[in-house]
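step 4 of 6: structure.
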Amino acid sequence: MSSETLEELKVSPGIWVLCLVLVVALTGFLAYRSLGSYQHASKGKFVSSKACQKCHPKQYESWSQTRMARSFEVLRPNVSVEEKKLVGLDPEADYTRDSTCLPCHTTGYGMTGGFVSIEKTPEMAGVTCEACHGAGGMYVEQMKSVRGKAMAEKTLKAAGLVYPPRDPVCRHCHNEKSPFVGMDYVFDYSERLKAGTHQHYELIYQPRN
Ligand code: HEC
Ligand code: HEC
Ligand code: HEC
Ligand code: HEC
């Protein structure tokens, strides 16, 4: 080793400390970013409401009439004009590609199988089944063999089903980060449940063909 290399080695601890500080700062920043932004109720692959329709046709039919099912549409130009003006959004602007709106007006944005764009993933636009019940990648398979309530509760939940979806699930989107609600926004779960999700039907706990 030449004496020059030795000199370099002597300054290196300082560089390592600097690197460490940078890494810690970057990790902290990323963690902060992910906490600050939208967090979905579940991990896993999204499969779309079409995958639920066959076995839950009534819930599907009823859900498709809700405003949440169609909530992607309000991002289009010249839709909900008065509402947008009230909160200072440009009613003529196209928000269908705006990453600040998409997490709450689509399902699984930025996640596996989730919304990418209206051209690529039209079935993931709006607030779909999986926005409330969790990504179906694993539990839909399990549903094919469910026999009995106890089994449903145990196996389906273990596979990521969110049932029943309570307050915290709704608050992923129903919170003050929406431009349409003020800091004093109160989300009344029991009232909202009556108004917005879908009609509820008796479960039969029988595998369907
Ligand atoms: C944090 C989630 C969230 C984000 C981000 C968000 N929204 Fe929304 N938006 C909501 C919720 C929830 C409502 C319904 C509020 C209610 O009824 O309590 C709503 C309502 C609306 C409405 C009114 C719908 C109607 O029927 O009149 C429009 C329009 C709208 N949002 C557009 C946007 C646009 C444009 C953006 C991006 C600039 C955006 N939103 C970002 C959650 C969000
Ligand atoms: C992925 C985001 C998201 C989740 C999760 C979510 N919502 Fe919403 N919700 C919205 C958006 C966006 C709107 C505005 C739809 C519009 O007007 O276009 C809305 C609107 C509503 C409305 C008004 C619709 C109407 O017909 O009056 C009700 C009620 C509602 N949500 C209840 C709930 C409940 C209850 C939950 C939880 C079980 C929930 N939401 C979960 C995004 C979400
Ligand atoms: C905005 C949230 C939300 C969306 C979107 C949603 N659900 Fe639900 N779902 C609920 C809630 C909340 C309950 C439980 C209500 C309770 O019993 O407390 C429920 C209950 C159910 C049940 C149990 C039986 C029943 O009818 O109550 C089934 C099955 C179901 N949902 C399937 C679906 C399917 C399929 C879709 C899409 C086509 C869907 N859900 C979309 C919130 C949602
Ligand atoms: C192959 C048929 C099948 C498919 C596909 C399917 N389910 Fe189910 N699901 C069932 C069966 C069977 C049950 C047990 C209750 C019953 O018999 O009605 C069930 C129960 C549920 C329950 C109530 C859970 C409980 O603990 O009782 C919810 C919520 C639900 N499904 C949502 C969904 C959603 C959301 C999708 C799509 C992502 C979906 N299901 C796809 C067959 C299916």
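step 5 of 6: annotate
 - The pocket of heme C (ligand 3) is lined by residues 49, 52, 56, 59-60, 63, 68, 127, 129, 131-133, 164-165, 193, 197-198, 200-201, 203 (CB under 6 Å).
 - Confidence is low (pLDDT under 50) at residues 32-39.
step 6 of 6: archive
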